Amino acid sequence: MSTDAHATPRVVKSDQEWREQLTAEEYAVLRQAGTERPWTGEYTETKTTGVYRCRACDAELFRSDTKFDSHCGWPSFWSPLAEDRVILRQDSSLGMVRTEVLCANCHSHLGHVFEGEGYGTPTDQRYCINSISLTLVPVDS
Question: Which UniProt keywords are listed (predicted)?
Answer without folding.
Answer: Oxidoreductase
